[in-house]
Design a protein that fits this description.
The chain contains 14 helices and 23 strands. The protein has 429 residues and is an alpha+beta fold. The chain has 4 domains: 92 residues, Rossmann fold; 73 residues, Dna Ligase, domain 1; 123 residues, ATP-grasp fold, B domain (D-amino Acid Aminotransferase, Chain A, domain 1), CATH 3.30.470; 95 residues, Glycinamide Ribonucleotide Synthetase, Chain A, domain 4 (Alpha-Beta Complex), CATH 3.90.600. The termini are far apart. It binds adenosine monophosphate and glycine.
């Protein structure tokens, strides 16, 4: 089969690597890709927001399956466009991807279908009274709350506040300073939940659900989960402290009702459903849904997947997931993100990277590239998150030790990484 992957991050490098490992993969293309993907797939230089050019390319090359990594093309309807052209594509339509594309939609959907989540209120930034109403709510509540811009804001639209003053500031940032542009036309204020965060990703074919291994993402930039949120600084799978009882509760109370609710509402959801969850004292609650694979969760999850990913994706598209179960390596996997100093703020690009060649020969370790560029056989930094060094081991600690060994061998000016990925799991040992 001929496969076409859309995206340029560590998630897409992982997808290219895993799809390419399939016996039925003959050729693989990626747009726009990165320095690492370029060494494993044919790079396609097109604009990923230009669906017509992407579809034309797909027809011209007789591509059998297109796989979309990031949320923006999904929310903007790339799957609808390809479907209309009769082209096979993996991911939800825009009517389904709105579960990620609009926080207001997601919150109202969860409420309607009794999916456990934080209590919330919705505000319209164009309402002249909205600041007043928001301040009233915040002061009545007295606790710190969470403020979420409605639309996509590259993972930066959510502010988890420390106190009432910060909650008010987060609202003013959306309403007065328009910090998230039109993504802040509406916003949500919700109760702040506490507990351990985990991610559950599942393949969904409109009706049937095939969950993947649980994972935990480390979103904040500094050790001990401090500093601003990033796209994710590391992740591991599976989560050792997630009991089978809690896992079942997540499935029964959150994942299953979400898929059923979508169907009831006339939305056919096909693709990966990603549930971001908080394990609270009152049981698991949904924080958010994403309509795609997580980055960096995909790195450890697919590192452990034994089943053929092309087959699973085709079954997802064809509505044939009933009775399918995935085969996993009975190990742990960890991914440590190596970033450019300054990320998630401003950072310098174009640093020469050394140490990668030696790592290629190490078994059980793979350096997935994110923001990199290949020039004359040399790799240069080209983004905030640069690599996701991924490894496996018999224990979580072993998988992390292996990944950190890889991280230590990579050098470039301004290299930054968190030194404590996995620490939350070790507190339960
Ligand atoms: P979201 O994009 O909605 O997942 O929010 C990004 C991050 O903000 C989540 O991964 C959580 O770490 C945090 N977060 C979101 N909602 C809440 C909440 N209600 N309580 C506490 N933390 C939250
Ligand atoms: N790692 C979080 C996300 O992919 O949204």
């Amino acid at each position: 089969m001929k496969i076409f992957v859309i995206g340029s991050g560590g998630r897409e490098h992982t997808l290219v690597w895993k799809l390419n490992n399939s016996e039925i993969c003959e050729e693989i293309y990626c747009c726009p890709g990165n320095g690492g993907i370029q060494q494993e797939a044919e790079i396609v230089n097109l604009d990923i927001s230009d669906f017509k050019s992407l579809a034309d390319f797909t027809k011209e090359k007789s591509i059998d399956l297109t796989v979309v990594g990031p949320e923006i093309p999904l929310v903007n309807g790339i799957v609808n466009f390809f479907n209309e052209c009769g082209l096979k594509i993996f991911g939800p339509t825009k009517e389904a991807a709105i579960l990620e594309g609009s926080k207001v939609f997601a919150k109202q959907f969860m409420k309607k279908h009794n999916i456990p989540a934080a209590d919330f209120a919705v505000f319209d930034s164009s309402d002249g009274e909205c600041l007043k109403k928001a301040r009233e709510l915040i002061n009545r509540n007295e606790n710190a709350m969470v403020v979420k811009a409605d639309g996509l804001a590259a993972g930066k639209g959510v502010t988890v506040c420390k106190n009432v003053a910060e909650t008010e500031w987060a609202v003013e940032r959306i309403v007065l300073r328009k910090a998230f542009g039109s993504a802040g036309n509406k916003f949500v204020i919700e109760d702040k939940l506490s507990g351990e965060e985990v991610s559950i990703l599942a393949f969904v074919d409109g009706e049937n659900i095939v969950p993947m291994l649980s994972s935990q993402d480390y979103k904040q930039i500094y050790d001990s989960d401090s500093g601003p949120n990033t796209g994710g600084m590391g992740a591991y799978a599976p989560v050792p402290f997630l009991s089978s009882e809690v896992n079942k509760e997540i499935y029964d109370k959150i994942i299953l009702p979400t898929v059923k609710g979508l169907k009831e509402d006339g939305i056919v959801y096909k693709g990966v459903l990603y549930a971001g969850l908080m394990l609270t004292e009152d049981g698991p609650k949904a924080l958010e849904f994403n309509c795609r694979f997580g980055d960096p969760e995909t790195q450890p999850i697919l590192f452990l997947l034994k089943s053929d990913l092309i087959e699973i994706m085709e079954k997802t598209i064809n509505g044939e997931l009933k009775g399918v179960s995935l085969e996993w390596n009975d190990k742990f996997s960890a991914c440590v993100v190596v970033a450019s100093e300054g990320y998630p703020g401003s950072y310098t690009k174009g640093m020469n990277v050394t140490g990668l060649k030696e790592l290629k020969t190490i078994e059980n370790l793979k350096v997935f590239h994110a923001g990199t560029k290949l020039v004359d056989d040399k790799i240069f930094t080209n983004g905030g998150r640069v690599f996701g060094v991924t490894s496996s081991g018999k224990t979580l600690r072993e998988s992390l030790d292996n990944a950190y060994m890889g991280v230590d061998r990579i050098s470039f000016e301004g290299k930054y990484f968190r030194k404590d990925i996995g620490f939350r799991a070790f507190r339960y040992e």
